[in-house]
Amino acid sequence: PVHHSTTPPTHTHRATMGGDGGTISSNRTYLRGAGKACHTADHPSNALKRAKLEEAERARLTMTTCAISGAVLDISPVHKSGGSVGGIGIVACPHGRLYKRENALEALLRRSQGAGDDDKTAPLGTYIRGMKDLYPVRFHVVPTSNGEGGYIAACPITGSEIGNGNIASYLIVRAKSKDKRKNGDTDEVDENPNVLSERAVKEMGLDGLQAEYGPFEEKDMIRLAPPRAGGVFDEIRSKWEARVEMEALAKQKKKDKKRKRSADGDNAKISSKVESPGVPIAIDERLRGKGSVPDSKRTAVDEARSTVQSAVSQSSVLSNLFGKGKKPQTEKEKAETLFTRNC
């Protein structure tokens, strides 16, 4: 007989799918059609918008905070006649980043003492050789429109806001004369704003800006907060590297020229001293032209001297009287010259 069990069979349910190649759709990228709609966050158009927003935020932070400490830059104005200048104590590097002057000095000092690339020296970068590569920044500032008592950096020509990084701006670096560099003198232009918008530079032209902001050249303009996209920052970095290399070559060439000139001078001094064991020829020629015996008189004296020497050599008496070395005389010679000596 067949006995049927009354106990119902038990089934074990696994939390994962079987080995048929299926996948648990925990990530929405596995879903068909996910992210294709323009309103989704991972749509290509929205990714581009996010990149632009990130770039704009990076530019804003570059224009408003110190690249070393991250502290907000103070652009409080120093009132001058004819306008307001702010940002005193801010410097910019060739890559367009802004620093507090005190923080930059401290970082350079730490680097010179061998502190290494710590948190305070690394943001400077090796492309900054010293304070000569950090340039003072002076913004034209205007009060904010919200009435909170703050200030914003604006272009002194167009009036557009440049402190948020949305509008391209340039730092004008003046070419100082040698006299001003030695004496440390400044003039009125050194106290005026030196940050202009790109639009102002294009509209006025370099020649039109020389009277108020010059003298300067196009290569002396620093783009502040340059964008990373589009190769703008890479071009700025390559130009600065080429400029540093050219300055190093020019400095080395100047040193070699100075060393060669010094060596030539030393050789000339040595050759003038080793002309003869007696008086050098150069000195003898100088004395000959200053009150010494003329050539005509010198010739007559030489002839007289030669005549006397000839007579002395032919006469034994004169030779004994004026000769340098006297030979021992015999008794006969003494007798012959006895009366001659007594005369």
Can you give a write-up of this model?
With 343 residues, the protein is an alpha+beta fold. It is built from 10 helices and 8 strands. The strands form 2 sheets. Strands 1, 2, 3, 4 and 5 form a 5-stranded antiparallel β-sheet that branches. Strand 4 and strand 5 form a beta hairpin. The longest helix is centred in the last third of the chain and has 42 residues.
Structural class: alpha+beta
Order of helices and strands: HEEEHEEEHEHEHHHHHH
Strand content: 5-15%
Low-confidence stretches: 276-284
Multimeric organization: single chain
Features:
single chain; alpha+beta; 5-stranded antiparallel beta sheet; 3-stranded antiparallel beta sheet; 10 helices
